[in-house]
Write a structure and sequence with these properties.
The structure is a single chain. By secondary structure, this protein is mainly beta. It has one domain: Sandwich (Immunoglobulin-like), CATH 2.60.40. About 15% of the residues lie in helices and about 40% in strands. It has two helices and nine strands. Strand 2 (about 50-55) and strand 3 form a beta hairpin. The longest helix is centred in the first third of the chain and has 13 residues, at about 10-25. The radius of gyration is 22 Å and the shape is globular. The two termini are about 40 Å apart.
């Protein structure tokens, strides 16, 4: 069956929808901007004694990454939408992520890695 009628919302329906989305905090939390997703960080440092991850997502307080048997270090962090800055600390020394989305400079003019989360 074919129909040529197209549904168009009335001004009342538009206002109703705007009120639902603007006045309901739970409704807005479903947007991609407010969602968080797990992001895996990997660092190849087979001879390191310790590797830590520090970034804007943990207020630059380093936390330990887990060592795997093949010498890779792993950490999983739940991040929100947007760009995040981070660095690895390999035996206490800062190291950029060669697989990062990009590189930037922090307030001390030191290089940091960037990751984009969507």
């Amino acid at each position: 069956m074919k129909t040529s009628l197209k549904w168009k919302e009335s001004p009342y329906e538009k206002l109703h929808f705007m009120n639902i989305t603007q006045n309901n905090p739970g409704y807005a939390s479903c947007s991609a901007k407010n969602s968080r997703k797990p992001v895996n960080f990997y660092c190849a440092a087979p001879h390191a004694i310790s590797v830590e991850l520090a970034g804007d997502f943990n207020h630059w307080h380093p936390f330990p990454m887990q060592r795997s048997v093949d010498g890779w270090w792993l950490a999983q962090v739940e991040l929100g939408h947007g760009h995040h800055q981070y660095r690895f600390l390999v035996d206490g020394k800062p190291m950029l992520d060669p697989h990062a989305t990009g590189v930037a400079r922090d307030e001390h003019d030191e290089q940091i890695s960037l990751i984009a989360v969507s």
